[in-house]
Amino acid sequence: MNELNTNIDPNPNKLENNLKYDHDVCGQELLKLVARGSAIIAEILRLKDYIPEFYSNLKEEKKYSNIIFNFSYFENVDYYEDKIQNSAEIRNLDEEFRENYIEILERFYLLFYSIYQYITDLETYVEQVNDGIYVQHTLETILMSKEIRHLLCESVFLYGIMLLLTDRLIQGEIREKIIVSYYRYKGQSTIRNFNILVKMFSKTGYVFVNEKNEFYEKKPKKYPVEFFERKRIDKSIVKLIIGFIKDHDIYDQIAAYPSPEHR
Question: 215 forms bridges with which residues in the sheet?
Answer without folding.
Answer: 210
